Amino acid sequence: MSSTNPFFRSDRESSLESDFQTEQHLVDGLASQVDNDTVQKIINTQKESLRRFEKSNEMLTTCTELSRRRLEKALKDANGHKEMILQVAICELDTLLFFC
Predict the structure, then answer these.
(1) What is the pTM of this model?
(2) The predicted structure's pLDDT at residue 1
(3) Distance (Å, rounded) from C-alpha 75 to C-alpha 83?
């Protein structure tokens, strides 16, 4: 292999080196087309978007918690009203049955 003879390169090593050079050429080509100011603007826009999403997420979490509390209270009230209606119905049935 190449570790024993520095002048000998295997086909695999040659292929890997060729792939690396091709990739490096592509990266260099893309890097030459990108303006650093534009990249910084994109990063700043992404940071601002992330900040807004985090704020929206906090607001949605708060809204969900408030809704959960209201639902618990509404269920408790509904169960109380249901019990009251059942008691009234039982009393009315008892009254009807005893006076008939």
Answers:
(1) 0.50
(2) 46
(3) 12
